[in-house]
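Ticket #4471: structure output looks truncated?

Reporter: J.K.
Steps to reproduce: submitted the chain below (196 residues) through the standard prediction queue, then opened the result file.
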Amino acid sequence: MAEYNPGEDQDTIAELYRRIDQLNEEITAMQAMGNVYTPRINPTAYPTPVEGQHAIDPADNRHMWYANGAWHKAGGIVYHIKVFSDTQTVASGDGKFIFEIPEDTDAKNLINIETYVTTVSSSGKPTVQIRNITQAADMLSTKCEIDANEKNSKDAVTQPVINLASDDVAWGDHIAIDVDIAGTGAAGLGVILEFG
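Returned output as attached by the reporter:
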C-alpha cells in the first residue's frame, strides 16, 4: 500500500493553483492586446465583441469568429462560381448568373464574398452585387469591387460589406450575381461566396 504523505499533496495542489493563476494572467494579457482567442467560451460571454475576436461554441465545439458585426462559425459552405469563362469579356447587367440555394444551405447567412478576373481591367473597377431574387433584397450594402489592373478583390481599396438585414438565405431561394460595372477589357469573372 502506498504511503499517504499530505505534505506532498499540498505542494502539488499549490503548484496547480499557481499554474492556473499564471494561465489566467496570460489570457488577460492576450485579451488586452486584442488577441482574444478563448477556447470553449460561449460567444455570448462577450457583451461587446470586437472585429476578429475568436471563441468556441460549447454547444458543438465549433470555432467561431466575430466579423462584419456578427458571430460566424468556421466550416461554412463555399460556392465557387465562374460567371464568365476565361476567354469571355465581362459584361455588365443583372442576373449574369443565377443559382438556387440547396437544402444544405437552408437558414445560412452570407458571411464572405470574393471576386476575381483572369484578365485585368485596364480602367474601371469590375463591380458585383449579390441579390436574393426570392426575397427581393441586395445582400451587399457595399458592392464587391476589383481595382483596375488587379486580378482579385482581396486588396481592393473599397472592401465589400454584407448587409446584415438581408444576409440570410432559405432553401429554394434564387440568388443572382449582378455585374454593375464591367471595367475595360476584363475577362473571366469569378465569384466566391461563403455561407455559414
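Triage note (M.O.): checked the attachment and the full C-alpha cell line is present. The longest strand covers residues 93-100.
Status: closed, working as intended.
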